[in-house]
């Protein structure tokens, strides 16, 4: 940091803001900014509720003005941060926000960028309290130390960051679109095959081509305690890859688990829209919230079954049948009623080779675009670090 920079508590460079009770003006119509109104990807207020004072929720208390910055104090590390636009001047936001209104000596966008620095975010993570709804107080935020130069220098730094971040946002949007396109290409090919009705194909229920033969076992017993355990969290959505695998002993498991082997396909019945399906190359235990499906070798290959469970038509069917409050689940009776047209085993093998090749290429492209996204995030962090250490 340069010698001519000042260092103050954030609260010392802010103006006081106002709170009101809209219910005292029951006919007054206003725009209400709830905590969910701010996007932590665009960092803008994306939607508001138009309500009367008589219908105002108890958290609708804080008055905002154009160019104020609002910072969500609930789960602060999620970075729900936005600058209030002109059309929301003198409207109301939730008490779940800290309203930041800088004094004339501070550029509001300079503070806006400060809120994204690694140090500030790390401090919010340390200071947040509460298990279900971790939050920081307004006082916690006011106590943070902000370094700042002259107003002229702030304008210069903000102009550089605005230009750089706009370029990064464009590059990030392009990378994210390319990532979506890569996934869509694979999913489209998969769907085209599984909605086809080729010559000689036969319509079958899922219950006619596979079954659940596994039994629940006690993972504490000697025969099972050192087997690898697979839960829904150990399977990557749409990819079929395993992550963070541990043994029953390492996880300290006590409730019953299904045995599975290398001939089966694992399908998570919880939240089927997550598309958690896997082909294990090891024997182990899986959660009771997972179906270890044994393909009938004369009807379907294991690999074809794996891809069938990842296709859009099956997922749509599973999602439709899992609509329930709380935790969406697919019961086995409904699962086994799913119908699909199947080619013979020889053609299943050929299709599977196509699927696996395209899947591998798709994952390679996803890896490239994901690395680009990570590099762009790292660039943002580096620029912010340079900006607030006086090196930009």
Automatic annotation (TrEMBL):
Biological process, per Gene Ontology: DNA restriction-modification system
Occurrences of domain Type I restriction modification DNA specificity (ranges): 4-172, 199-360
Entry keywords, A to Z: DNA-binding, Restriction system
Superkingdom assignment: Bacteria
GO molecular function: DNA binding
Gene3D superfamilies the UniProt entry points to: DNA methylase specificity domains
Keyword Hydrolase (UniProt): no
Entries under Pfam families matching the protein: Methylase_S (PF01420)
Family: Belongs to the type-I restriction system S methylase family.
Protein name as annotated: Type I restriction modification DNA specificity domain-containing protein
Origin species: Chromatium okenii
């Amino acid at each position: 940091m340069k010698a001519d920079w000042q260092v103050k508590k954030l609260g010392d460079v802010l103006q006081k803001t106002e709170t009101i009770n809209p219910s005292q003006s029951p006919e007054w119509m206003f725009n209400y900014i709830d905590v969910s109104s701010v996007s932590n990807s665009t960092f803008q207020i994306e939607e508001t509720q138009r309500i009367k004072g008589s219908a105002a929720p108890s958290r609708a208390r804080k008055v905002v003005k154009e160019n104020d910055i609002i910072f969500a104090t609930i789960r602060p590390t999620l970075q729900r941060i936005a600058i209030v636009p002109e059309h929301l001047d003198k409207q109301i936001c939730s008490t779940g926000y800290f309203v930041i209104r800088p004094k004339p000596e501070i550029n509001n966008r300079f503070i806006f960028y400060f809120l994204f620095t690694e140090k500030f975010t790390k401090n919010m993570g340390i200071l947040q309290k509460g298990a279900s709804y971790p939050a920081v107080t307004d006082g916690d935020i006011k106590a943070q130390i902000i370094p700042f130069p002259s107003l002229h220098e702030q304008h210069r730094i903000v102009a550089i960051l605005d230009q750089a971040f706009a370029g990064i946002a464009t590059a990030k949007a392009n990378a994210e679109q390319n990532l979506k396109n890569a996934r869509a290409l694979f999913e489209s090919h998969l769907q085209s095959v599984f909605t086809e009705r080729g010559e000689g194909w036969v319509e079958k229920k899922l219950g006619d081509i596979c079954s659940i033969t596994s039994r629940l076992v006690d993972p504490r017993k000697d025969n099972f305690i050192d087997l690898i355990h697979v839960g829904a969290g150990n399977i990557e959505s749409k990819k079929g890859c395993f992550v963070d695998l541990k043994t029953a002993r390492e996880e300290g498991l006590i409730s019953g688990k299904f045995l599975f082997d290398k001939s089966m396909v694992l399908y998570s019945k919880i939240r089927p829209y997550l598309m958690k399906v896997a082909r294990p190359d090891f024997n182990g235990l899986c959660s009771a919230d997972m179906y270890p499906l044994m393909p009938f070798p004369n009807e379907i290959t294991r690999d074809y079954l794996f891809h069938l469970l990842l296709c859009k038509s099956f997922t749509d069917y599973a999602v439709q049948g899992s609509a329930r409050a709380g935790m969406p689940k697919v019961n086995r009776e409904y699962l086994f009623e799913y119908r699909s047209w199947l080619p013979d085993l020889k053609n299943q093998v050929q299709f599977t080779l196509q699927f696996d090749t395209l899947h591998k290429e798709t994952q390679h492209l996803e890896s490239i675009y994901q690395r680009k996204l990570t590099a762009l995030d790292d660039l943002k962090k580096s620029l912010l670090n340079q900006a607030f250490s006086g090196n930009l």
